[in-house]
Write a structure and sequence with these properties.
Blueprint (H helix, E strand, L loop, with lengths): L12 E4 L5 H7 L5 E5 L9 H10 L4 E4 L13 H14 L4 E4 L2 E4 L2 E7 L5 H18 L4 E3 L14 H12 L2 E5 H11 L3 H7 L5 E6 L3 E2 L4 E2 L8 H14 L3 E4 L8 H19 L4 H4 L2 H6 L6
Parallel strand pairs: 1-2, 1-12, 2-3, 3-4, 4-7, 7-8, 8-9, 9-12
Antiparallel strand pairs: 5-6, 10-11
Helix pairs in contact: 4-5, 7-8, 8-9
């Protein structure tokens, strides 16, 4: 039923916007549907980053992605951070805002890492209430992303996918499903990544992340400094079959190549989606940039 749909129509295929590529984007206006920007990089009043953000935002739909919400911490929510985030959102008018289901700080000390949580009912209620507070403050639903992990808690009483579902339902938020993170955690914790995909509630998934990782044999690290490997592409195919056409983007945070290399990699995602879903599927027909100029993309 139409009234049951809580996610937005797909934007198509996007890339993470990185400073190395500002000029390439403005000078060549590549055939990219949308860009994801790291919120913390633009929480300043002006300067070059905000100039480029404004110029690129006039040409492409943008979404905002954060790494400092620390939604799972027992520290009070950082209201200075939230005020800056809201001001940035007012300026940028992103299609949506996302962060991670994790904790990053404790006692005011930032670990600068995305640390996993114990998967318990108590944690679900704690995280969900804080997400509700953030959503009320921002005046919109947000997306919460699954993180990769390298340890587990003895107190955990549910699987990670059950935890993600429970948080999203209790908070009435949406899900940013990171396909690479699922693969990394599956390898590190010895579970089947397809079990994860098949148990996530499709109703709440609004975006996919794709990325590369470092494989050390006995364990895998989510480094975002390699091309998307075949194992993650295979899992992406399965995710498309499970969830349908979801807005898809590629992250690259280190060892960043020329923009043309990322364009070529995004073409692989487009081809996989076309072959899996068919050319007529809305994801493959989506043109976020074109629709923005026609006034058809809404926040």
């Amino acid at each position: 039923m139409a009234q049951d749909v809580i996610t937005q129509a797909p934007l198509g295929f996007g890339l993470g916007l990185r400073t190395q590529h500002f000029d390439a984007v403005l000078n060549t206006e590549p055939d990219i549907d949308w860009f994801e920007v790291l919120s913390e990089n633009y929480m300043v009043a002006g300067g070059k980053p905000r100039y480029y953000l404004k110029e690129i935002g006039e040409r492409y739909p943008l979404v905002m992605h954060g790494v400092s919400l620390s939604i799972g911490s027992t520290d009070p929510l950082n209201m200075d951070y939230l005020k800056a985030l809201k001001q940035l959102a007012n300026d940028v008018q992103p299609q949506w805002i996302s962060d991670h289901i994790c904790w990053t700080s404790i006692h005011g000390v930032n670990s600068h890492d995305l640390l996993p949580l114990p998967y318990t009912e108590e944690t679900v209620m704690h995280v969900a209430q804080r997400i509700k507070t953030v959503q009320d403050f921002l005046g919109r639903r947000i997306l919460m992303e699954n993180v990769s992990s390298y340890l587990s808690y003895q107190d955990s009483s549910m699987d990670e996918w059950e935890f993600v579902n429970a948080v999203a339902e209790a908070a009435d938020c949406l899900i940013l499903l990171d396909i690479n993170n699922i693969y990394v955690s599956a390898r590190n914790h010895n579970f089947n990544p397809l079990d994860y995909l098949n148990k996530i509630n499709p109703k709440r998934v609004q975006q996919f992340h794709l990325a590369g990782h470092s494989d050390y044999g006995d364990y895998v690290i989510d480094t975002h400094d390699h091309d998307v490997p075949s194992s993650v592409w295979d899992l992406y195919r399965a995710a498309l079959k499970r969830f349908g056409g979801i807005s898809t983007m590629i992250e690259r945070d280190a060892n960043i190549p020329e923009f043309s290399a990322l364009e070529a990699e995004l073409t692989i995602a487009r081809n996989i989606a076309r072959d899996t879903l068919g050319k007529a599927h809305p994801l493959n027909a989506a043109k976020g940039r074109k629709n923005m100029h026609e006034g058809k993309v809404t926040a």
